[in-house]
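dumping these here so i dont lose them again. two proteins, back to back, each one seq then structure tokens. dont judge the mess
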Amino acid sequence: MPDTKTRPAVRLAKADEFDPEKTFECGQCFRWSRTADGVYTGVAFGRAASVWAEGETVFTDAGEDEVRALWSDYFDLKTDYKAINKEFTHSDFLRTCAEYGRGIRILNQDFWETLCSFIISQCNNIPRIKKIILTLCENFGEPVLKNGETLYTFPAAETVARLGPDDLEVLKCGYRAEYISKAARFCSNSAGDTAALRNKDAREAVRELMKLRGVGEKVANCVALFGLGKKDAFPVDVWMRRALEEFFPPGFDPLSLGPYAGLAQQYIYHYARTAARTKVNGKGEARE
């Protein structure tokens, strides 16, 4: 990993407050890649950064001004997750999940990127999702030089909205291409104004998102949680459904978990998926 003595580094958080591996590998994002030395590098909002844990501290090579202007909010560093976790006393299982997932933070991602990414995620595994998104960025995004390597921004909605069916064939994403085009057009005109969606509560935002072709309830909740900051949104996929059936009483309402139900969901999802992945076949499955 980078040596903070020889490489510029800015402290982000304590390692038990922000675990890069858990955060980047828990199914909420697809643009952070890990190298053999444990360093994660990604691009968000047009900027590239590397993040790594060293001892009890997490660092980034982004400058202090950029951390204040972008990464602090993106990594949700001002939210006290320890205090929130103390409220998760609904069951022994939830407490176990919260402890197991300690260090996960809900990223404040770009709305359009989140919407497009989770449309792509449908009926897909994580390696293929990442490949499709990488192809989208390499073909239609803008280059960003990072440590001698050329990375790419996520293409603007306006750029994708201008593309035709033939242009999107390079993605090899099948029926999802139509959904991507419609979502891009939604986000590139006044109907896609995120301010209106952000002013709605989670349930209202989910209902609005589900009006988009190709956006079902699960994808809409993922977008509300990760792309609109609705921390009470609660995506239910295969992993979550199994956990709810096995560890919670019949008829349990996830929204009873309160304003941070989405964080509780992420802990449960990470615990259930990691345990199942270890026991079954070692593959990371998407949120289906």
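---- next one ----
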Amino acid sequence: MSNQTSIERMDKTIAALKDSFNAIRTGRASAAIFDKVRVDYYGTKSPLSQVATISIPEARSIIIQPFDKSLISEIEKGIQVADLGLNPSNDGKVIRVSIPPLTADRRKELVKQAKTIAENSRTSIRNIRRDGNDDLKKQQKAGEITEDDLKKMEDELQKTTDKYIAEINSIYDAKEKEIMD
């Protein structure tokens, strides 16, 4: 495994962290909270964004306008099944979702959830570093790289690891601040 492979794996870990954080609902309206919502569209489970327009007219409300009006009940069902803690209502044309303010206990729970996700991401990054170091040691034993190369590449991998851990910490800090606001 090359250093480039490690970097690609670490990038995927960061992308997965961001996806997970997008699914954590804060007190503000955001179209990203519907990323995991799937709607039964003529027998196919489709992402909500492919069957409707999601707009945010105010900080605590979301309007979902289906491209096909017959999908309104399916969209409502999809939102309820996604277990987002939201109650959609419709007027026959659009679905309105109001985002209730978060209680202090719920905020603490969400921060704890975000902290766990961030820690799992840090662990993934460290595991990628370990795999990379193991691979480098195998290459050195096989005579593909010198001991000096091994040391230099391990140092590079450690610097890369530190950079990604710092990025995870930064993303987590921003999410924590967003939840607590």
